[in-house]
Amino acid sequence: VTNSFNIRSTGGFYIVTGINPANGAILNGATLASGSGTWCNYSDRNAKANCRPVNPRAVLDQVAALPIATAICLKGGYPLIYPRKDAKDYGTRAAIEGESIPGEKVVVVDDLATTGGSVLEAIQKLNAARLVVKDVAVLVDRQSGAREVLEKAGFRLHAVLTLVEMLAHWEGTGKVEQEKIEATRQFLARK
């Protein structure tokens, strides 16, 4: 076949990209096991320096909106950029990942809107890169002040769902205890 690279390796295929010079042990690489169609990456955790335990929930909280924005951009054919919570101290050291042109209009996409604080932080980073933000789209508006804060700052909040709408749905399906629904409604009424 034209422009192809063919390998017959019924015993598996191994690519080694790192070896411990002291004992010759494989540190990094990838394998395609015999009879498998899936590549596996491997690395020696013990060979890595300065590793510390990570709270998976804390990591997810920082990137929850990224898969949502990625899906929107893939479906719509839009480019994706995102502001980092903290600029990396290695590589490009970018505060914003992705390519953008000063003056471009961008929409901030997030999973939740609560107080609006984290959204305003993201907007400040995008504005610092001379990008124009007018709209914020979220899956859920928790109705805890974000809409008012963003409107006061000159931004429009668009939500797929509000917490009140979700409560009505759960009440109708009986999937959430009525006491919890009422407690949440009372909490929202105090705002």
**What would the average pLDDT be, to the nearest integer?**
87
* Alpha carbon gap, first and last residue: 68 Å
Taking strands numbered 1, 2, ... along the chain, how are they ordered across the largest sheet? 1-2-3
Residue ranges: pLDDT <50 for 5 or more in a row? none
For the sheet with most strands, the description reads:
3 strands, antiparallel
Structural class: alpha/beta
Summarize the structure in words:
By secondary structure, the chain is an alpha/beta fold. The strands form three sheets. It has a three-stranded antiparallel β-sheet, with no helix packed on it. Strands 6-7-8 form a three-stranded parallel β-sheet. Strand 2 and strand 3 form a beta hairpin. Helix 5 packs antiparallel against helix 6. The longest helix has 12 residues. It is extended, with a radius of gyration of 24 Å. The model has no long low-confidence stretch (mean pLDDT 87).
